[in-house]
Amino acid sequence: MVAKRKSIARRKTSARGTGVRLCGCGCGKPAARTFAQGHDAKAKSLLLKVQRGELKASALPSALRSPDLKKGDGLIARLLRKLEV
C-alpha cells in the first residue's frame, strides 16, 4: 500500500504546530510562507495602484493591512511602510 504525501504547505506549517497558514494577499488559499506562489505580485500590483491613486487604501484586503507584512526589507514591506496602510 502506497502512502499519500502531504502537500508541501501543510508539511511545513504543521511541523510548527500552527496549522495551515493562509495567503497574505487575502485570497484565502493555503501558503507555505507569507504568500501563495505568484500572489506576491498580486499584492504588489494592488499596493502600486494605491500609491498611484487608482485605488483607495481602504479597498485593500485586511490581510494586506496586517502589521506582520510591514516587517522586513522586501518590496511589499517597503510599500506598506511608505503608504502607512
Oligomer: single chain
Overall outline: elongated
How does the major sheet shape up? Answer: none
Low-pLDDT regions: 11-15
User: What string, H for helix and E for strand, traces the elements in order?
Assistant: HHH
Tally of alpha and pi helices = 3
Portion of residues in beta strands equals under 5%
Q: Compute the average pLDDT.
A: 80
Rg, rounded, reads 15 Å
Determine the fraction of residues in helical runs and give it as a percent range: 25-40%
* Count of distinct strands: 0
Structure classification: mainly alpha
Give the number of domains.
1
Beginning-to-end CA distance, first to last residue: 52 Å
Structure description:
It is a single chain. With 85 residues, this protein is an all-alpha fold. It has one domain. The chain is 38% helix and 0% strand. It has 3 helices and no strands. The longest helix is centred in the middle third of the chain and has 14 residues, at 39-52. The chain is elongated, with a radius of gyration of 15 Å.
